[in-house]
Amino acid sequence: DIAQGLGSPSCGKDIGRFLTFGQNMRKSSALALRKDVPQEERYIVPRSTPPPSSADDPLATPLLRRLPYRIRPKPVPTTVISLLQLEVQAIFPKFRRSIMSSVEALFAALTLALIAGAANARFNTSYDRNFRVACPGGQILKAIYSVHNNGKEDRAWRLNCDEAPNEASIPTCLWTGYVNDWDGPVSFMCPSNYVMTGMGSYHNNRVEDRRFRFKCCTQRGYKTSSCSITFYENSWDGMLQYTVPNGKAIVGTTSEHNNRYEDRRFKFIVCDFGQLVPAS
């Protein structure tokens, strides 16, 4: 019966349908397997890159050598990129402002240091401190600069020197005593035919004033002449800046003090200084 059944035409048709069904099932299973693999987990091996060998990896097996080894990177969603761009745009201005603030602070500190250095170089006295400045031999006071500080209620001074007129060496010199009282006027002139070559002073914080003394020098055979007095060379709390005209020398000064401003104003007496002309 079995042999007869296998040899019948209907049985042959059934076996053919069964074989066709099996082939279709294998194809469908393979296709389903490929479709079920997620995109980011598929492996791609560039043609230009050879697979690793057992020499590179002692644990490699023929099976491992046939397996691909490079993974395609998972694409970053556009939304994430946009959020990162927004974050950078938000952070960068703050970072830039922080950098600029640091640079500005550093620049300000350097500027203050330079100003302080320039002030020290410009003035040879300090607020509230005693001083005595004298020109080298053969030189006279040529320029006087001074600035007032309202916090200290005092002046800083710079005295510049230059060669005495008419090649005078003025070797004979003297220092005076202090020529004024606290809050009192200064009315001073060097001895006859002497010119001013230095100044000394000390400050009192209680009365916010200074007392002054001066150095005067002369040379035998030289005399002062054609003297005049200047206007006040500074205003209250203002800068004093006076330069002696060529051929002349300072021989004296006058000053008055103001308790409201705790400051002084100055005038200067200047004269020609030259050799005596023998009488004919």
From TrEMBL:
One of its GO terms (cellular component) is extracellular matrix. The keyword Disulfide bond applies. Transmembrane segments: none annotated. The keyword Amino-acid biosynthesis does not apply. InterPro entries: Dermatopontin. GO terms for biological process: collagen fibril organization. It is found in: Secreted. Keywords: Disulfide bond, Secreted. Belongs to the dermatopontin family. This is Hemagglutinin/amebocyte aggregation factor-like. It comes from Plakobranchus ocellatus.
